[in-house]
Amino acid sequence: MPATTSNGDAVMRRTQILTPGNIGEEIVSQEKSWQEKFEERVAKQQAKRGPLKEGKVFEHGPAKFLFIFIIGFVVITHLAILVVMMQSGMH
């Protein structure tokens, strides 16, 4: 059973492992690592969402906004440069 703190969180204990092939210190944990907990939360959230809708390019709203902003910025910049070049007489 792992040691616990006053608020109930599990604490990792260090144990000395002395075997002929492996001499050293190893961390022994009775609880799941933070990465395993994170992966479980992500898996639960993905399971709640359901299947993707066909033909939907962007699932993430901010990514859609950023994509449209960048495309619009490039188009407006090209048009502005074209107008400046036409006014100055360059071809």
Helix percent band? 40-55%
Number of alpha- plus pi-helical segments: 2
Query: How do the helices and strands follow one another from N- to C-terminus?
Result: EEEEHH
Whole-number average pLDDT?
75
How many runs of DSSP E, i.e. beta strands?
4
- Major sheet strand order: 1-2
Poorly predicted spans? none
Largest sheet: 2 strands, antiparallel
Straight-line N-to-C gap:
79 Å
Beta-strand level of the residues, as a percent range? Answer: 15-25%
Radius of gyration: 28 Å
Q: Structural class per helix/strand content?
A: alpha+beta
Can I get a quick summary?
It is built from two helices and four strands. It has a domain at 60-91. The strands form two sheets. It has a two-stranded antiparallel sheet.
Describe the structure in your own words.
- The relative contact order is 0.07.
- It is built from two helices and four strands; from the N terminus they run ββββαα.
- The strands form two sheets. It has a two-stranded antiparallel ribbon with strand order 1-2. A two-stranded antiparallel ribbon has the order 3-4.
- It is elongated and about 70 Å long.
- The model has no long low-confidence stretch (mean pLDDT 75).
- Strand 1 (3-4) and strand 2 form a beta hairpin.
- Helices cover 48% and strands 18% of the residues.
- It has a domain at 60-91.
- The chain has 91 residues and is of the alpha+beta class.
- The termini are far apart.
